[in-house]
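ok new one. same drill as before - structure tokens go in, u give me an amino acid for every spot. 191 of them this time. try not to just spam alanines like last time pls lmao
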């Protein structure tokens, strides 16, 4: 599993013999009529890694409607939605974010799946400029995976997100909220 929005050496992967072989295996499975969930999974991953996010979304969504819900499926489906929807000037990443936050809310999610979901949801939040959420999720990610393969990138993204957060406002008598909180303090009736 690779992080969303991280092309890396994707062009050379798209031309790799392993990907062509996997595509041929899926085509043979489709022709033979034995396209079960395992082959759908491979087909969806192939489509996503080939850069065909729309096909990946359709295939993985079909698996989900068949009741094959797992954290890994939801992470891959979120990546497909992210790739499909993030190309526009005003991306609607609600579906990708909902899927990833759903993984994070699942009880018993493996550490590996949690790490991937945290990193990916931070990337999605970054795309929509939700800087506090980016910082929160990357901080949580780095607690779980401080020296993993994406930790350097996570630190860079976290630093950039924190730089975009507004400076904290000082609280005091010059701030109207100060008087609101003072009014909430109970007074003694013995005076």
């Amino acid at each position: 599993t690779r992080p969303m929005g991280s092309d890396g050496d994707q062009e050379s992967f798209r031309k790799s013999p392993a990907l062509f072989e996997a595509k041929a295996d899926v085509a043979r499975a489709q022709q033979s009529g034995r396209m079960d969930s395992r082959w759908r999974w491979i087909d969806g991953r192939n489509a996503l890694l080939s850069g065909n996010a729309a096909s990946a979304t359709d295939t993985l969504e079909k698996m989900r409607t068949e009741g094959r819900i797992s954290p890994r499926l939801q992470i891959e489906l979120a990546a497909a939605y992210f790739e499909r929807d993030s190309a526009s000037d005003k991306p609607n990443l609600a579906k990708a974010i909902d899927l990833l936050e759903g993984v994070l809310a699942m009880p018993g999610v493996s550490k590996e799946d949690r790490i991937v979901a945290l990193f990916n949801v931070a990337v999605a939040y970054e795309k929509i400029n939700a800087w506090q959420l980016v910082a929160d999720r990357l901080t949580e990610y780095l607690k779980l995976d401080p020296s993993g393969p994406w930790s350097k990138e996570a630190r860079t993204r976290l630093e950039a997100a924190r730089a975009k957060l507004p400076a904290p406002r000082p609280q005091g008598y010059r701030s109207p909220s100060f008087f609101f909180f003072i009014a909430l303090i109970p007074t003694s009736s013995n005076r």
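Residues 60 and 178 are 52 Å apart (CA to CA). and btw The chain has one domain: 10-166.
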